[in-house]
Amino acid sequence: MQVIHTVWPYLALMLLIAGLFPAIERRYGWKLFSVLPPIVLTYLFVTALAVSGLWQVNAEIKAAQSTLVTHLVPALLFLLMINCDLRAIWRLGPRVLGVFACTSLSLFMAFIATYLLYRHWLPGDAWQPLAALSGSWVGGSANMIAVKQAIGMSDTYLAMSLLTDALGYSMWVVVLFSVARLAPAFNRWTRAISSGDIPLAPVKTKAPTTYDSVLLWLGMALAAAALAAWLAGWLPVSGMVSATTWTILLATGFGLVAAHTPLAEFPGASTISSAMLISVVAVLASQSNFQGIAAAPLYLLCGVTVIAIHAVLLVGFAKLFRFDLYLCGISSLAHIGGVAATPILAASYSAALVPVGILLALLGYILGTGFGLVVATVLSALAGP
Fold first, then answer.
1. Looking at the domain assignment, is residue 248 inside a domain?
2. pLDDT at residue 179 tops 80
3. Which of 27, 91, 293, 339 has its CA 20 to 30 A from that of 83?
């Protein structure tokens, strides 16, 4: 029964649901959230409400959905980049950055190989969830959504990417925590030196978020998104590089520039970006349905296959370049798990590696969207017309 017919009740519901599952996780800490994070539960819950017909899909609500996603995704990426200090990442040194590069390369090869393995069961544009997933498995959920927007992926496919992301990540975290005890034997085999004593400058701490910082950051983010959209209208487009793609890349670049100015010391960007991310996911879910959900097991199998191939290739790179197990594990989770989980894994290995984990995860945020677009270009070419 359709009980919502106008924009404002619809927006109120989206914001309430976006805050519901993070609040429950913070308050109760249920184990369910270690398997299905709040962002996935939000997507599934809103999708279920959309299927039930709680709101009317009329012109007014459709226009609001399109406007919100179009303007909030570039603003979100701008805010995410504020915490990314390229100078600190560069100070990690060639060995750490080499592990990161090998991890990215192994994931790229894994996604291509997985698609070639299952391409006969993924006809047409069904490669798109894998491309969006690749953005997340180098960066995070925001990169997934950015890739989704840039390649014009349907909202139906987003559920596949989010579920595969959540379940594949949960499985891989358990593996990476479990293999820590194998580090001495692994390092002897690769002839590597343990990385537990890498020196690094501490990561900057942020002051508490205040109401004025919320308003200023929102204003700057929306202004950056608007400027990026205006500039994108002047840039050349092609089959894979649309005006939306340019907007997303420009907004990311603006954020990286701002991150190296005194603005980076101003608090609140990470808090607002987290809230904006889950709100955008709720709006995207409100446009979708469960059509095609029967294909979910196939995408889950693809996710497991990607991780398995990635693991084998990364071990090979470790043997070739003498990487130790700790750096390999942290780099892998910095890609697949992001900035929230990586410091926890790093701390379980060695307290000295926590800043390394944070900075590698932030580097993944910088590169995730571009990585996903490259994977999308290759998969699109392999899929053919």
1. yes
2. yes
3. 27
